[in-house]
Amino acid sequence: MDDRPADRAAELPGERRLPADRNGVVEAGDTLVIRGTFEVTHSGEFLGVPPTGRRVAFDWIDMYRVADERIVWRFLLCDWKGLLDQLTASA
After folding, report:
1. Is 63 left (phi over 0), alpha (psi -120 to 50) or beta?
2. Residue 66 lies in a domain
3. Is residue 43 part of a domain?
């Protein structure tokens, strides 16, 4: 599996490949769920917020369904609100 399941997160300026901490993996039948955290430096505009230089972290959950050894469904949930709160918090 790729260490950057959040396609949108991969667009964070200054981060070519986002390091992800995997906090948990659950496999049940044809379903795989991975929970993790990204930690990056906000070095370019993201979500409409100009660069702050802050080190920020956000959680994500990536779910997959597999059939015939192929991914047939994927759902990704990222804590964009938590990230935006970190980017816009008062210093």
Report:
1. beta
2. yes
3. yes
CATH code of the domain containing 35: 3.10.450.50
Model's pTM, two decimal places? 0.71
The parent domain of residue 73 ranges over: 9-86
In this structure, is residue 36 part of a structural domain?
Answer: yes
Let me know: does 71 contact 64? Beta carbons within 8 Å: yes
Check if the beta carbon of residue 19 is closer than 8 Å to that of residue 3: yes
Give me the number of domains the chain comprises: 1
Per-residue pLDDT tens over the stretch 32-43? 999 999 998 999
Residue 75 reports pLDDT greater than 70: yes
Cα angle, residue 17 at apex, residues 71 and 41 outer, rounded to 5° = 130
47: left (phi over 0), alpha (psi -120 to 50) or beta: left
pLDDT for residue 18: 57
- 9: pLDDT strictly greater than 80: no
